[in-house]
Amino acid sequence: MGSSSLLNVSGLYKNFGGVQAIDDLNFEIAGGELLGMIGPNGSGKTTAVNLITGFVKPTEGEIRYRGKNITGWPPYKIVRIGIARTFQMVKPFYQLPAYKNMIIPLYSPRVKKIVGGKYGDRDAVALDLLEEVGFERDAFVAYKVASVLPQGYLKRLELAKAIALQPDLIILDELFSGLSLAEVASIVPIIEKLRQQGKTIIMIEHRLKELFRIADRIIALNFGQKIADGQATEVMDSQEVKNAYLGSE
Amino acid sequence: MQNAELNSSGFKKKRKERIDRGIKVRSSDVFALSSWREMLYLSAPRLLPIVGLLILSIVLSQYWQRVLLSVSVFALLAISWDILAQSGMVSLGQALFFGTGAYLAGNMNHYWGWPPYVTLPLATIFGGLLCTLFLIPVLRLRGIYFSMVTLVLPLMLVRIIEATKIFGGTEGLSGLDSLPNRWVEIYLVITVLLAALFGFRRLMNSDYGLVLKGINDNDRSVMNAGINIYWFKTQALFIAAAIGAFAGAFVTHVYMFVGMPVYALDYSILPIAAAVVGGMGTLAGSMLGAFILVPLSELLRGTGGLRIVFYGLFLVIFTVAVPEGIFHYIQRKYHQFERWVEVK
């Protein structure tokens, strides 16, 4: 295949001092697709994301983005070519107000390049972006220091920081974890909107029900290997996936 | 219930209420310049260091003018330390910057005969570059690891100078050119200090400074925003090193001597103490700290051998009484007013 896919991962291995975190992982994602990635704890989902985004260097294997080999690139370079991610453990700048958190991605070379020179008033852009992900303007939540914000808002902030980078591929690492049903329900439309804008999305999720409703395709990992790839129903019917989640007898 | 509101002497119970002053300049860029009172409220804290330093430079005796030079030098080192700390680099080796600047100026003057007005700017720029080059290999280290390297480097350099006898070895270089007169000395250092204070405060409050502070807060997150944190750290390092190098070059020409003491631990530790006592993260606090600690050290000269004991005692008192830093405390009090209100 190759040329039609946006991201192509082939023969990827990662070894953490004897632990085979990723073991011959192969998958690809087409432009505009929403790929769900599932698997039990410790199956290598987050490591896969860290490898793609450059936070961890692979032991072996190749990652191609738009046909370009990006294996081993530093994270900031990978962001510049259009891949943004969120962290499972939110990483806000705790001492700064929420909207000031947004200034840092808005200051990045990628955004400068897209917008062309100066952004104008970054504060105003930051507030607009935050409103998009559900920081109500009237409630002044956006002006609150990140350290006092509840988990739901921190997750939204994390998402907004990724969106601010105007990426083509967004990787959401357990965006829904720790959120209430209502909070998840309010974030789903934001993701739908991103899809309408033509963004490609990889979602790592434990909240399978919510994920299956929006994902085009699911891949399942276990012990760093891909054990299933296909439609949600197919993946859930796979004996290997059942064994991975429930244990085989 | 009625009794609860009355205290023993029969008056109504009151409590202190703290209210932020009404001018909202701190939260937005729109300045409310509608009255002289408000303009004074805004400009007074900024005018205070300028006017204060000018008055001090005139009224002080010649001895205390020398102390003011020393204070300003340590204030520059403290500002330099503060910029690094705000960018996530805790330096234990301000002496590296200071000494490198001092030796550069001394050598340029001694071997090539260049006058101070050439050596000062050159030592500032090349001292900054040289120190940045020294520290680039350890820029990837975080926290205590970076600090350890900065602590060791000046101590190593001083031994190299001792062993190889370069730059005058243990004797140092003496008989260097001085600045024209003491007024040039004092106004030069005051100008640079004020420029550094206001200039870099402005820089740290800009979006650029926000990125630097972000690196301190969470470097992975800044990296994840497509920003090369090592490049930004390098820039912050250059700025801080250049400030320190200027201080060193300046002192070389004031004392007309440069030698191994410029790499002494004093120049590393005192700026940190100043920043802690004055309040980190504002630059103004670090400067204030230097303006308290250095004269204090002079005043304690009379106590002889117990000087360091009293000095240490004061340090403990300051940090226990005002752990946030004196500047932060004053700033908070300035922006709030208190009034007594009845407890309902």
Can you walk me through this structure?
- The complex is a heterodimer of chains A (249) and B (344).
- Chain A is of the alpha/beta class.
- Chain A has a single domain (5-246), classed as Rossmann fold (3-Layer(aba) Sandwich).
- In chain A, 37% of the residues lie in helices and 25% in strands.
- Chain A has eleven helices and ten strands.
- Chain A has helices at 45-52, 75-80, 98-101, 103-106, 109-115, 122-132, 151-164, 181-196, 208-214, 232-237, 239-246, and strands at residues 5-16, 19-30, 34-38, 60-65, 68-69, 83-85, 169-173, 200-204, 217-222, 225-230.
- In chain A, the strands form two sheets. Chain A has a six-stranded mixed beta sheet, sandwiched between helices.
- The model of chain A has no long low-confidence stretch (mean pLDDT 90).
- With 344 residues, chain B is mostly helical.
- Chain B contains 13 helices and four strands.
- In chain B, the strands form two sheets. Chain B has a two-stranded antiparallel sheet. In chain B, strands 2-3 form a two-stranded antiparallel sheet.
- In chain B, α2 (62-86) crosses α10 and α4 (116-135) runs antiparallel to α9 (229-255).
- Chain B is globular and about 80 Å long.
- The interface between A and B is medium-sized, with 31 and 19 residues.
